[in-house]
Amino acid sequence: xxxxxxxxxxxxxxxxxxxxxxxxxxxxxxxxxxxxxxxxxxxxxxxxxxxxxxxxxxxxxxxxxxxxxxxxxxxxxxxxxxxxxxxxxxxxxxxxxxxxxxxxxxxxxxxxxxxxxxxxxxxxxxxxxxxxxxxxxxxxxxxxxxxxxxxxxxxxxxxxxxxxxxxxxxxxxxxxxxxxxxxxxxxxxxxxxxxxxxxxxxxxxxxxx
Length: 209
Fold this sequence. Notes:
Blueprint: H1 2-22, E1 26-30, E2 55-58, E3 64-67, E4 72-75, E5 81-85, E6 87-90, H2 91-110, H3 118-135, H4 148-169
Antiparallel strand pairs: 1-6, 2-3, 3-4, 4-5
Helix pairs in contact: 1-2, 1-3, 2-3, 3-4
């Protein structure tokens, strides 16, 4: 199980490199420093050929998003601008950075004594919380205000934290340091005494012998 706690974040890092190359997992419009704009080529799930210099896509509930080199706009189904900015959130990049940090954390935890499963649940908690945050930056179907991924991540994170807390409060015998009871040292049978031995005297010879 703990091997997965190291392998999974490494796999996510590799996968997100591919997402960055093809321009996948683009989020809502934003104007912050790392806003992603269109500068040529093709983007995954976007039409970048019908209108030169502009990429468009149809999102959930009939919303349309348009990205250019200097701006990004999200239109509602009625054509009204819902959000706009200098670009869009590149959630794949956020996930890439978060997973790189996670790899460092699990490798550090792996060097310490721990219960089997701690690495795996560390991965689940970190990645689940990250997915909850980044999904707020996406345009996706929502159920009671959250996406399906957010609901799933929240449930898994709560279960993982609960498991770690339970383990902390109820450590198993394997988690306890082994204490060897002091055993009395048996007395050695047949050992010689440290007291000096008295010299043996021969009986005197009988007269006339």
